[in-house]
């Protein structure tokens, strides 16, 4: 799980495949009276993270209620999540008999066919979906390709065949979506799609952005810059297009250019804020100073967001006294809440540590402010003690915070990070389990605890159950997919692990994911491939902890 210290995990759609034909017939049909027992058993198994047992129990429940499409649909979803294609096939047969065919069902059918190696039949289904006049058709086809092939090479090959067959509809959004998928998959199909898109939609600025993205992915950074330069004037057409062009410059590692694009056209608080953050990222203090002067001249009105932004820019420019004045002038609302916390940070940066901690203590004891602000004052206090390398004081801040806000999830999660950082895994586990007592389906805590047990202990089966519970909620979350792949590796199932880890890499370019892929490849004897992933991880973050541990474990040099 890449950097499990992230406090929230990206929400993702539950996209899975379903079967076309039934599997082998059951030995006997359960009596209707078995429905309740089977359903309860399924839910208990699911809550425990035992997906194989849940898949079996849900299928028994679906057999007992063959006219309940919702139940058979759930049985199929869980079976496929458990990688049990046979049970998924039988469950879908029940679902198809109890509900009319829909675009979603047809897409699911194609996915299952791909899962079971029946690509020719699946391709016919995909072509039919792509030809449907409803735009949802191509979206279901795209989801089927993503979920059906476990290897990126297979999915790329299938996309190539669909393009060769002229199956992609003459819809810009469809071509852009397939282009984005092809870039994630790798190989030469993305170049083919780009050529088709440019021919079909030559005047569309989003096509130029796709070309720039393709060139960047291929390592042609100069070509990508040239492609963006030719479309910059289009930034005036809409704020959304301006943002997209700026984002591509930022992805190129050119935040100053991104800020320059954001300066094109009418400005508002959002665009000014993005410009400021980009200039901070570029470490362009001169340009940021000019922006600060421009904004300061427009700060006559007591706009809270505007004054907060000026305070933050002044803080970065180390104009600390200015920052304190701006923060003090923020009149109210959410910006005022942030300003009060930032004031303590500025005082700390000025070396006025006693004043900083006094300000935070005042917030912590102020009954007139909301609970969230008081809680955040404890979080910031702990962060400042960490920066001062005062480990006991950091732990004390969390302890006092939890004394005032018992079982607060944010405080527990942050303290768990502290324990994990100090290699105190039992205490990190204890805090994460406290979160799960209050919120049994907290996906972040499930994944964090599961990954930690897989990575730092030998309790791999327990880790798998926790991660599987997270997978049920967010099966396409890249961080969870990575955790799943990593625990499979720790269980010695390297071939399966590699499939999941490469899928995680396709979903999210993260140094920890790359390091995991590299380590598994290395242990499988594929050192040349492993070195390439080590290189990618090092380019993203040479100081990543997982990368360092993987290099030490394998003795590899990227």
TrEMBL record:
TPR repeats lie at residues 511-544. The keyword Signal applies. PROSITE patterns: TPR. Keywords: Signal, TPR repeat. Residues 1-21 form the signal peptide. Pfam families: TPR_16, TPR_8. It comes from Luteimonas yindakuii. This is Tetratricopeptide repeat protein. The lineage of its organism: Bacteria, Pseudomonadati, Pseudomonadota, Gammaproteobacteria, Lysobacterales.
